[in-house]
Design brief:
Layout (H helix, E strand, L loop, with lengths): L5 E6 L3 E10 L2 E11 L6 H10 L1 H4 L7 E6 L3 E2 L2 E3 L6 E3 H8 L3 E6 L4 H4 L8 E5 L9 E6 L3 E9 L2 E6 L12 H14 L12 H15 L8 H7 L17 H10 L3 H25 L5 E4 L1 H5 L1 H4 L2 H8 L5 H5 L3 E4 L4 H13 L2
Parallel strand pairs: 1-4, 4-8, 10-13, 13-14
Antiparallel strand pairs: 1-2, 2-3, 5-6, 6-7, 9-14, 10-11, 11-12
Length: 352
């Protein structure tokens, strides 16, 4: 007898991905997936109903009995208010409006914890070897537009996800270059304090590149200058800019570094070192001997860089505590749809 499918949602301020998964004896099978523009809908419930009546109905799948929605923001008491969208979501109201018996809202980074035990080989790649302890906490962190951080704690019912806002702690400069970057970025953005996320994120790589351009090429003679000028203010970007030039400064910096550009290489190395150091700090905070997982867009785009000696050295540079980190394995999650997959894994747990 075929089990009821599972509904998974990855809810963002710009786009929402709804997917239907079929639970199997060993894993999950993706049945259908549809991407929606979030702002086109007044709420999540009518979008879900449209998905179930359209793409899901087209494959003749039965109604799901459980759903998990990963949301970009904190979840408290079964409710979530999205930061960049006017939706106010509640588990009880969603269940009533969609007819789905079990509904859960989970922070979009904490939900990844539920997918970790079920990762296939194709969804992950080793960054550095180690020996994971089965009864120890896990850390998942990832640099994308921002920086996400969550912990997983083993328990009788499997991993318990603990969402955090660790990315908004104070950025701690370790070198003269990082100190100068911090002072400049605070002044440039008009900030009283500088959070870790301002540097250790995909956006942060763009800021590092802007700072280096100002210091090393103040006359504007570097190829990345044109993008840097318009990166924070895309509306001011001239229409005459060549279409072949990437519109995303962090991506352009990474590409230039691969091509051997000296400034881009230096920017990437500084950023990578800061990322690795924060990773080590967060691992020590909860003694995550169960393993560290790196997610977000940079995990698969910069896999070779994450495997570099520069990353490992900064990760382990914790004085007497470096030995504690030595045995912890680090794995990159390279599946771009890991959010939906992890939400489906959580939905499956709701039925057990």
């Amino acid at each position: 007898m075929r089990c009821s499918p599972l509904l998974a949602g990855d809810i963002g301020g710009t786009k929402t991905l709804l997917s239907l998964y079929q639970p199997l004896d060993h894993g999950l099978e993706l049945l259908v997936s549809e991407r929606y523009t979030s702002a086109d809908w007044p709420d999540l419930a009518p979008m879900v109903r449209a998905f179930l009546a359209g793409p899901a109905a087209a494959i003749a799948a039965p109604e799901p009995q459980a759903a998990c929605f990963a949301v970009a923001g904190p979840v408290q008491g079964g409710r979530a208010q999205l930061t960049n969208l006017s939706w106010s979501l509640g588990e009880a109201s969603l269940a009533q409006a969609t007819g789905i018996a079990r509904v859960e809202l989970v922070n979009d980074f904490a939900v990844l914890i539920y997918g970790l035990p079920h990762l296939e080989t194709s969804q992950q790649a080793a960054v550095r070897p180690g020996q994971a302890q089965a009864d120890a906490p896990l850390l998942v962190m990832g640099a994308g537009t921002g920086l996400g951080v969550a912990y997983g704690v083993p328990g009788p019912g499997g991993l318990q996800a603990i969402a955090t806002e660790a990315a908004h702690g104070e950025f701690a400069a370790r070198t003269e270059a990082e100190w100068q970057l911090k002072q400049w970025l605070q002044a440039d953005l008009g900030l009283d304090r500088l959070s870790t996320e301002r540097v250790v994120s995909g956006t942060g790589l763009g800021h590092v590149a802007r700072w280096m351009l100002l210091n090393r090429h103040p006359s504007g003679d570097h190829p990345l200058w044109e993008q840097a000028r318009h990166w924070l203010h895309p509306d001011a970007q001239p229409s005459s800019q060549p279409s072949s030039q990437p519109s995303d400064l962090p991506a352009a910096v990474a590409s230039a570094a691969v091509a051997g550009d000296a400034l881009a290489t230096a920017a990437l190395e500084l950023w990578l070192s800061a990322y690795a150091s924060v990773c080590g700090d967060l691992a020590l905070a909860a003694l995550t001997r169960g393993g560290i997982y790196l997610a977000g867009g940079t995990a698969f785009k910069l896999l070779d860089s994450l495997r570099s000696p520069a990353f490992e050295q900064a990760f382990l540079a914790k004085g007497r505590m470096g030995a504690v980190l030595e045995s912890i394995p680090i794995t990159a999650i390279i599946d771009p749809a890991i959010g939906s997959y992890s939400a489906a894994c959580r939905a499956r747990m709701l039925l057990s």
